[in-house]
Structure formats: structure tokens, C-alpha cells
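Note to self: keep these together.
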Amino acid sequence: MQSIRAFVRALLKRRVNPIIQALEKRVRILTPSDRLIAGVLAIMMVFSVGALLASISLALTEEVPAYGGSYTEGLIGSPRFINPVLAISDTDRDLTTLVYSGLMRSNPDGSLTPDLAESYSISNDKRTYTFVIKSSARFHDNKPVTADDVVYTIRSTENPNIKSPRRADWEGVSVSALDERTVSFTLKSPYAPFLENMTLGILPKHVWQEVSPEEFPFSTRNTDPIGSGPYRVANVKRNSSGIPIEYTLTAVTSGTRIPYIKNFIFKIYTNAETLKDALSQNKVQGAHSIDTTGSLSSFALHEAVFGRIFGVFFNQSQNKIFADASVRRALDRAVDKESIISRVLRGHGAVIDGPVPPRTAGTEIATTTSEVAIEAARQILTDGGWKPGDDGVLVKTITVGKKKESVRLAFSLSTSNVTELKQAAEMVADDWRRLGAEVDLKFFDQNDLNLSVIRPRTYDALLFGLVIGRDLDLFAFWHSSQRNDPGLNIALYANSATDKKLETLRTTDDFLSRIDKAQEIATDIRNETAAIFLYTPYFVYRTPADLSGIHLGTISTPSDRFLSADRWYLKTERVWPIFNTKKVEEYTK
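Structure:
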């Protein structure tokens, strides 16, 4: 080794030293001004060569996402159940989506791809689904994900003592472990959207099996979770009462889909105002569903169609005036839906005229501009036999048995005391009063609305929102069998022909055929004015400008914004094409 070094030194001395000596000799004979010019030229040459090399590198390399960085987001409300079986609040679902994974995974475009599953098969009769779990699937404590974990999760969801909000998804489904990595599901009858159920996060049986069903909701495991998702809980900050106020999630780098962002930090706030203040003070970098005016205009804005429809649903059993088709049509015609969009939603929404949100699951279901025509609406009522009474409220004489009686166009409109819905209800009621109706507004706490009004069906008219999933399954909302609690047919709609279409929709596998059938159902409901469809809100998400790769698609619940979170990135690097498998553009589609 020493002889090699000696040889190199001798070679450099023999070859390089004469060149240096010659340059020094030439520099010495230059005048001071010539030396200055030569120095400037030398510096310019160095910079030119550097710029040329940089340009060549830029032209011949490609920018790709790189691992690293931290993103801090604000959430409203402390999580109680970071648990796929129990998650009920938006904060619960946000954290659950990142910490847990299911056999299948939803994509922003509405498609499903295997996640923990290596493969799956469906029997010819479409009643049995068999999944093989990846041998590499691991929980965050490095224990393997097995078929027993899947069975335990489903049976926990089905257990009535645990009271899972997902329990209805598994009624009539039997599950069994065929071996350590194979699990089978058998349905009583074919159900096309069943694969969507497979996105349910899987619980580690070895962590939860000692917890009784009665203790399940109160376990500390609900706020210190162990899952198998792209992120694991690295740190939890709690206040003096032990309530979590900040979560730090760290990317799991041993999975098949390694995230680019190293850390997600979630700071918990009690209400929208404190979260907005935190945004404006740069204490957090992002948040959703926050008023976008004023100081928040500097953040990047992402909007997506929310898979929710809001409308007014009539209870003909509670108030017989709604059995009159002319009343329903006139009330629909009289509502200024565009004003609700501009004044209540600040432009972040779309007018709808049917039970399916626009662009749900890749569809392009057109919205219509609301035609506000009080006079035209009055004419509909006049043609239907309604006339102004002494107090200005419209009245109509009807025959009940052999007797005639006078009925007034008077009813109550119930809704939640949430600001958005209160404002929308007030605007709708004002339009109807101009028409000649007497409207009594009733506002309820959300829990009270569900328990005391919706479930027992004790409302005349109800302004409410329905969540429409990517699978376009409208059965629970419009099938006649769902008119009573726990069904969700709050319009109490009944049509035997539509019932058959709803049943067919549930067993239709082909995606385009499902869209066509959903359109037929929407037309039936719209033609009968079974409800007044008002709007679908946009999901509004504010993030820092340097956070890239976000693709929202259609949002059913706010947590859907994280469906592609493993593709988000804060940092980039340049690589030669031969070493690049995916370009930056592919992460933003």
C-alpha cells in the first residue's frame, strides 16, 4: 500500500508540478491589470462550467418524491376511539385511517385494491369471498397479521355489547379462518358492494383478546393504538386531565407502501375558531372545513365533491298536506338553492336535484341551476286548489270520508342546531313563507335530533344530510322496507318498481351498470318529488403550498382525504431516468 502511495506522489510530482510551475511563471510576467482580468475570466469560467453542468443534470435527470419532512394538521375534538370497530367522530376516523389497514384499500378514484390481502377470489354464486393475507403483513409491534386477527375484528364488530357503528355492515355474514393466512366470508345473498366492507381496519387479536366486550369502549388501547397501517403512533401528549391534545405519527418504513412524509403531527383543538387562530399563527400547517376568508388565503386550497346530499324530507304520516303532490312540487320550485350555496356555503357547494351527489364515484351526474319562481310555485298550488286564507296562509278544502274540512299550508321544519343547517333552514323557510306557507322552525342538538326526532319519525319536514358511499348503494335511504327505524328512509318513500331497482343495484357487479341503475332510481325519486334536494357541499382542505401529491377524489367522510396520504410528499430529489420507477406527475393524478 505504501509503495502505491509513493508511486502516485512521484507521478503527480512529475506530471502536475511542471504545469503549475509554468502557470506561475506566466502569471508573474503579467501586469497587475492583466492579472485582474485573468482572475475575473477564470472565475467566470468556473461559474459557466458549473451552470452548464447544472443544466445538463437538470435536463438528464427527473424530479421524484423523497422521504422526509413533517406535516402538522389541526383537528377539532379529542379522539376517543382510534379503533376501526368503534371510530365515530371525524377525529377518530382521521387517525384510524392512517394507523390501521384492511384487507382492501379504497383509492381516491373510488376503486378498491388489495392492502393486507395478497389476493382474493369470489365464488360463482357471489356469496363466498376468500382472502389470502400477505406473508409480509405486520402490526406495528412486528407481530404478523393472521386470519385469526381478521375473524376477531369482524366478530367484535358484530358483538351487540360492543355497539360498533359498523355492525350493520356485517349482518348475515359468517367469517372463518381456513388457515393462518386465509380467511373466508360467506353471505346469505349476493351483495355487490361487499368488497367495500373489506376496508375495515384489522385489530391485533393478541392486544385486544383479554379485553371484555363491556370494557372494550373504555380501554386505553383506544387512544394508544397498535395497527398495521402506513403510520404508527410514536408519541401522545396529554393535558393535565389525561386527554390527548397532540399525536405524532411516524411512517412505517418496512411495509410494501412506504410513505414519503416521515411524520404526521395532529394538534387537537376544541372548536373551529381556536383552530382557525392556530392556522393564522402558523401553529399548524393545515386543516379542513375551516372558513377560508381573511388570513387563511395564503394556504393552498383543495376542494372535492363531498359524498353527502342535503335536502328536505317530508313525513306524510305526520302531516297529510305532504301527500298532495302539488304541495311538494311548489315547495321545491320556490326554494332559491343558489342563494344557499353563495350565502351559507360561501360558494363551496353545488346545487342538486336528485339523491346522488355530482361526480360521485367517477360519475358526472349534472347539477341544475335552481329556478326561483315564486309566482310559478303559487300557480302550481292554485291549480291544486290552494287559496289564500284570511291570514294570508294558503288553505284548501279536502274531503275526508263524507265530510269536508279546510287544511292550512302549515307545518314545522326540523333540523340540527349546526350553524350551516340553521342558516339553510331559515332561508328555505323564508322562501316558503313568501309562497304563502306557515313554517315553524325547530332546532335540535344533533344527538337529540337523532334520538327524539328522526328515529321515532316525529317531524313534519326534516332538513338533513345523507352520506352516499362510493358504491352508490341507495337501498337504506329509499327502499320501502327502510321506512321505520333503524332504516334510513326518512322520506318514508314507497314505490314497488323503485324497490326492485334498488334490489337489483345491490347485486349488480358491473360498475357502469350500477351507475345506470342509480340514475334510473334517481329519476324515479325526482319525478315524484319525494324530497327537495338542495345541495352537496364541497370538502374544503387547506394545506401548505409545499405539500404535494394530494389527490382527494370524491370524499364520503373527511378521513377519505388520507386515502392516498402515503403518496403525499414534502421533499424531492433528482435521479437518472434509469433509476426512476415513478415520476412526480404520477403522484398528483
